[in-house]
């Protein structure tokens, strides 16, 4: 049964020490800022975070990084937050860099029950070091394992009380993929409506993938991140 959370503490109660989290967002766009803020106040550590990037300095996942709650990050674009490189140089975080398409496909594979796949991307580069290489029809490929997580924290535009999700433009980014590839999925949304108010044609993530929904308390605007009622 879907849980409609009224408070952030309850929504993130599923996150434990040492868990692997998938967290949506491209920069701060499409990131579950309310849920991330809740994690900054939660006594949790040793997290592995699968996300395109680690927010910005002191913002989004960048706030968790500053608190040293992230032990490893798997993603594509860590340079949006200068502190990531500084922490890496000090040996405070482990980084696994994946090309953006590989990151997406690895999550898709995890959601589809596929153990991994072969790709040409990264062949002959440092990203291929330590990975299985195979020649198929005269072309070299490297093996990439699927990605899954204990918990996915995602951001959508609207949800109905069943848990069906609709996204807003590019804020959709990695969120639908993550919703399929985690044991527990918590969605932060702008609006919660009754069943039947969302057109079946606009639903991207069916309710079967979603375990909980909470209304956003923080949103990203042109002026920055602001609190809302």
UniProtKB/TrEMBL annotation:
<protein>
    <submittedName>
        <fullName>CoA transferase subunit A</fullName>
    </submittedName>
</protein>
<comment type="similarity">
    <text>Belongs to the 3-oxoacid CoA-transferase subunit A family.</text>
</comment>
<dbReference type="InterPro" id="IPR004165">
    <property type="entry name" value="CoA_trans_fam_I"/>
</dbReference>
<dbReference type="InterPro" id="IPR004163">
    <property type="entry name" value="CoA_transf_BS"/>
</dbReference>
<keyword id="KW-0808">Transferase</keyword>
<dbReference type="Pfam" id="PF01144">
    <property type="entry name" value="CoA_trans"/>
</dbReference>
<dbReference type="InterPro" id="IPR037171">
    <property type="entry name" value="NagB/RpiA_transferase-like"/>
</dbReference>
<dbReference type="GO" id="GO:0008410">
    <property type="term" value="F:CoA-transferase activity"/>
</dbReference>
<dbReference type="InterPro" id="IPR012792">
    <property type="entry name" value="3-oxoacid_CoA-transf_A"/>
</dbReference>
